Amino acid sequence: MTDFGGALKDRNKVLHFKLAIIGVPFDEKSSYKRGAAAGPEAIRKVSTGKCYNPDTELGVDLAEDTVLVDLGDVDTSGDVLKTFAAVEEKVAEVLDLAAVPVVLGGDHSITYPVVKAMARKFPALDLLHFDAHPDMYEDLYGDRLSHACPIARILEDGLVKNVVQVGIRATTPEMREMARKYGVKVVEAREFTEGLTLEFPNPLYVSLDLDVFDPAFAPGVSHHEPGGLTSRQVIECIHRLRARVVGFDVVELNPSRDISEITAALAFKLIKEIAGRVVKP
Ligand code: MN
Ligand code: MN
């Protein structure tokens, strides 16, 4: 059963929707292990209303207080550029309907085409990026579209205004320099403090790479980077956010590395809590 805790409405039976799930089963830009292409399916599978309810911790009922639909997966059968174009187009379609895209990765490379579409709709867009990695390599093994590069591409293209990265613990001197150059605010894992309250003046896009969590909380990712955040720390950060969230993604779930679907369940939990903040800013 694929119903997001019982919150999901049938696209064909509603006139309007506020939140739209888009799956991107794509992992061709993963530099180490493949497997993230199975992420969207694993999140849908785990999210059954037989196990979970549609209520968020802050009291939003995603079944009653909003309209959530699942638009299925983007066609990723073509080459990379065709897939990225399809991602961009799908996100733009959702935005044209004044809805909020909820993108299920897929590896992190897909955030670049998503943010391209977001930036067209929101010329002043802010970005909150949860990750163990800055994803600001100029290129990785010569590949500028690698999942290690989306934030570099987004910054170079000037697609976003204020950028905050949270949970970073695998950076390099080059990426620190890039963060300085572009004025990226970085909250590294080692300096994360309870009660972190982030405020954004512009509409906000949230990109959440599941390896921001300590591998003990989220083993189902391709790159295990110890010393990460707890589930509670990230959820609290989302709860304390002062911003209007206009789109978000949860990426890098690699079900082949997961144990008892605990990372898939965490992905689903995050989607619920972020969606709740969309409904009740
Ligand atoms: Mn990462
Ligand atoms: Mn990443």
Number of helices: 7
Q: Roughly what is the average pLDDT, rounded to an integer?
A: 97
CATH superfamily (homologous) name: Ureohydrolase domain
Which oligomeric state applies?
single chain
CATH topology: Arginase, Chain A
**Terminal CA distance:** 29 Å
| Class inferred from helices and paired strands | alpha/beta
Largest sheet: 9 strands, parallel
What count of domains describes the coordinates? 1
**Bound small-molecule species:** manganese (II) ion
Indicate the overall shape: globular
Q: How are the strands of the biggest sheet laid out side by side? A: 1-3-2-4-9-8-5-6-7
CATH class reads Alpha Beta
Cα radius of gyration in angstroms:
17 Å
One letter per element, helices H and strands E, the order comes to EEHEHEHEHEHEEHEH
How many E-type strands?
9
Percentage beta strand: 15-25%
- CATH architectural type: 3-Layer(aba) Sandwich
Proportion in helices = 25-40%
Low-confidence stretches: none
